[in-house]
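=== Structure Prediction Worksheet ===
Name of assembly: unnamed complex
Input type: mixed (protein and possibly other molecules)
Chain count: two
Listed entries:
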Amino acid sequence: MSTDKRTPIIQMRGIVKRFYIGQPNELEILHGIDLDVYPGEFVSIVGASGSGKSTLMNIIGALDRPTEGSYLLDGLAVDTADDLELSAIRNQKVGFVFQTFNLVPRINAQRNVELPMLYAGLSQTQRAARARELLEMVGMGERTSHLPNELSGGQKQRVAIARAMANDPAILLADEPTGALDSKTGRLVMDLFHKLNRENGKTIVLITHSQELARETDRILTMRDGLLDTKSEVTSA
Amino acid sequence: MTSLIENLRLAWEGVAANKMRALLTMLGIIIGIASVIGILTVGEGMSGSVTQNLGSLGANNINLYLQIKETPDGQLPLRMVYEPEDYITDPMLDALSQRYPGAILGISAMNYMFDGEGRRDGSTANVSVQGVNEGFFAVEGLKLAAGRTLNQRDMDRFREVAVVSDRLVANLFGGDVQAALGQNLRVYQGTESSPGSQVLNLTIVGVYQFQVTSASNTAESKIPTTLYIPLTTAKRMNGEPDGYTSLTIATAPDVDSTAFAQTAASFLNRYYERNESFQVSSFSMQSVVESMNAIMGSISLALSVIAGISLLVGGIGVMNIMLVSVTERTREIGTRKALGATNAQIRTQFVVESMIICFIGGILGLALGTAVGYVGSKLIAKVGYLPSTTSILISVGFSLAIGLFFGYYPANKAAKMDPIEALRYE
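=== Predicted Assembly ===
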């Protein structure tokens, strides 16, 4: 594949994550993960609960630092970043989509989409224009001033995806994005991801336990006992 | 970094989401600020009214009076009743005036006679009869409505003349002050039901404007007013010798009246070196005003400190609610961090939120305290006082400081949350 020759957007080498370091109950969750994800790829990470899937996701999303190993996200070193740099990386490079949407409840859809841009320091007018554009793109242009509790689950998730796209991040990191939705609205959300991947060339990492959803992606990575089972990599059509 | 307006907006969204709770949280601040402002304002009103009342008696006046002299071993003297040789005399005062030329504008002396009634054609007017010297009127600043004040000739000739209030004229002469001049007036000691022995037969030579100085439940026409007769006349009727046991000196405006009170007393005490029973003491109105103000100031300060404790309690209430709020919004905090909010941005959001609550509480407390202070000072001092700009600025600044101080700990707790834990929080 020609993409393999390019610089990976996610480049992990020997990622180890331990908890309770130095204590009797020290626990190693990730045992040395190597992972390359290339620009424009749509990959899925599957795995049973307890496999280390969530821990890996937290590191990919720069919510956490690895104990050992190196991790470059779009050229930025996550493993050596301090808290302030991690905030900036999350703000600029990662677009999170959560299972439970995590919209801030008391502010409207537009304001929710503006949040990452607010933290990036964009002006009010820039934010408003970009937020409206993104909400139009996800088909929520008519509901910009609705509060989250006035929206259905599928609508909330579309607002959340618009929010994840706000600062044009290097990757979209989706954690069970259809988990709280019925199959029909879940389908619409998946279609939206495919559209963003195909039309906007967005690199997407999907964390799921559903093999069915994983099979829609370019590559399936299976987490098993703290290791990525590379043999399980499947490239779909 | 996010701008001030953005921070205010972020924080306001937090406050507005829970208005009732915010209002209840503010209550502590409202009550605290209101009581501090109310107390300070009433205190200001009280000391203002003291200054005004004493000032109307003459801020530049000093009082000289005879005081019992203790024996060298700290005992009371054998004799404690005035004898003629004890009195402060006119020659002594003339010497004082000559020693300090220009310092003395006037000397006022008075001698109380009795309370009684002026009667004419079946009408009565309550009076308090005072003998006064010719300097009295200028020193006390009495305003004449008609006629003249008492003069040296009235004193020298022991005339039975009177300067009466316009209120007495209203009661006995139908209010025509000009017509009252030259009229005869009989003044009886005591009342009709319990009469005294003294009766004065006086000619009215002047009418002054009576001013109500204190509130009273007495009907207006029944309020006793002072009736002035020559001091010499009064003293002769009372069988007292010439001279004074106490007097008031009006000093020139450029004279330090407090210092001059001391100077005048030590000057006069040279006449009393060999007097075993009495000496001259003095005080200035200025020093009375100052010490009254100092007392009022300490009282309001003490009360404000107590009221300040309620502010402290209010601040702790704010901290408590902010802690609850931070815990409740753990997930939101996690989300904001995932979206790239820095610890400082989260901290600022919650600190500003706490400051907004305290600021609004401070403004409401200020409004309430102003109302309380105005009504309170109106009741106590008869004049409505408003809080000073300084106390307004201090109270608003202080409520912001409380917001900052008590909001910092909860805000810091929010800022330091681990985003992973926070996102997982149910």
